[in-house]
Specification:
single chain; mainly alpha; Growth Hormone, Chain: A; 2 domains; 11 helices; about 75% helix
Length: about 230
């Protein structure tokens, strides 16, 4: 019974960390930018990987517990900040496509993880710690290459008021060209959102103007949960 309780806590602590990461991701992304938020998240995932990777050698379930909790926080931050950053740095004609691919690759990642967890692959007594450390390897790749990308243009203009930095980021991301139309759209958005504060979860649920967007996101996420992936 003690062992069952212990492993149940180790499994569920990931969701607790994910909830905390989701709740603070909006504040972190607005204050420090999506790029810095993702870099911070990569560091958290690498630290979590070290905990889970060395837990078997140290024979410490506490290290697994801490590592799973940190991985949950990292996943909660990443699933929000990454979607925002990927959408904001994409060209306008590809923005919707890129936003949808985030959900597709999320489901694909779950499927790949379940395949790697089979007993014929990494789901063995000798390799389970390698399986739990796999996310740290992906985070390390992003930590190496992400600094070469600029901050998202909407954040630079709407949050920082850096017009020159915004235009420079557009040219770096999309190549040389005339982006005055996109810049004017951002300026209009800045004028509309001027003076509005960042809402928390309860305030969003009470705001009727976001119900269509909220319903669309809930329908998409619920569809992913009901597509049969969990049963597989």
């Amino acid at each position: 019974e003690t062992l069952t309780l212990l492993w149940s806590v180790i499994v569920s602590i990931y969701c607790v960390g994910g909830m905390m990461g989701c709740l603070c991701s909006g504040y972190l992304a607005a204050k420090y930018g999506k790029k810095k938020c993702l870099l911070f998240n990569d560091v958290v995932l690498i630290i979590a990987t070290l905990h889970t990777g060395f837990s078997r050698r140290a024979k410490s379930f506490e290290m697994i517990l801490v590592g799973r909790f940190l991985e949950g926080i990292g996943a909660g931050i990443h699933i929000n900040a990454h979607v925002q950053y990927a959408g904001e740095i994409s060209p306008k004609k590809l923005r919707g496509f890129v936003n949808v691919t985030c959900s597709v690759f999320l489901a694909l990642g779950k499927a790949v993880a379940r395949i790697l967890g089979l007993r014929d692959l990494l789901g063995t007594e000798d390799m389970w710690n390698v399986l739990l450390s796999f996310s740290g390897f992906v985070a390390l790749i992003q930590l190496i290459f992400l600094p070469f990308f600029p901050e998202s243009p909407p954040y630079l203009l709407l949050q920082k008021g850096d017009k020159d930095g915004c235009l420079k980021a557009m040219k770096q991301l999309w190549g040389e060209g005339n982006y005055h139309t996109e810049f004017d759209d951002l300026m209009k958005e800045k004028a509309v959102t001027k003076g509005t504060k960042i809402m928390n979860v309860l305030e969003v649920l009470k705001e009727p103007s976001v119900y269509p967007q909220l319903s669309t996101m809930l329908l998409l996420l619920l569809s992913l949960q009901l597509c049969g992936l969990s049963a597989v």
